[in-house]
Amino acid sequence: MNLLVIHGPNLNMLGKRNPKHYGHLTLQELYETLSDEFPDVDFSFYQSNYEGEIIEALHEVFTENFDAILINPGAFTHTSIAIRDALEMIELPKVEVHLSNIDKREDFRKIDYFKDIVNKRFMGHQLDSYIEAIAYLLELVA
Ligand code: DQA
């Protein structure tokens, strides 16, 4: 499976963010752990703090050979209709992942512009949210 993994703003700062919500792993360590856990998955990792760059990374899906998309949009989850529109165009299997449980935090995090356009959401289990999401995608594309 060729999997595009997209991370939104501030997720490049994992390791420095509140460990209660986000754990202790850096983004690089997260990438390495996922690559070790799923040696047969061909990962393309992308992170940006900029909304337009994430939109352009999603547009590139139309000229690349991906089988599925995993996105953690960070705070753009709660604000970005533009990223939602870009993701909605893509007909591949797609999952939304969060380290923390956005439904059990501040009210503003309960707004999720992606939840009805993804195949499934995985959240609240830190690293395991990703592992569960990738296992789900592997079954879906098999
Ligand atoms: C997050 C949750 C968002 O509310 C927050 O803005 C993030 C990370 C998560 O993985 O739990 O940056 O997407």
Question: What would you say this structure looks like, in words?
Answer:
The longest helix is centred in the C-terminal third of the chain and has 15 residues, at 127-141. Strands 2-1-3-4-5 form a five-stranded parallel β-sheet, covered by helices on one side. The protein is α/β, with parallel strands linked by helices. The protein has five helices and five strands; from the N terminus they run βααβαβαββα. It has helices spanning 19-22, 27-37, 51-59, 81-88, 127-141; strands spanning 2-7, 42-47, 68-72, 94-98, 120-123. Helix 3 (51-59) packs parallel to helix 4 (81-88). It has a single domain, classed as Rossmann fold, CATH 3.40.50.9100. Helix 4 (81-88) links the parallel strand 3 (68-72) and strand 4. 1,3,4-trihydroxy-5-OXO-cyclohexanecarboxylic acid (DQA) binds at residues 10-11, 21, 72, 74-75, 77, 98-100, 102, 109.
Task: Tag the structure with descriptive keywords.
alpha/beta; 142 residues; 18% strand; five-stranded parallel beta sheet
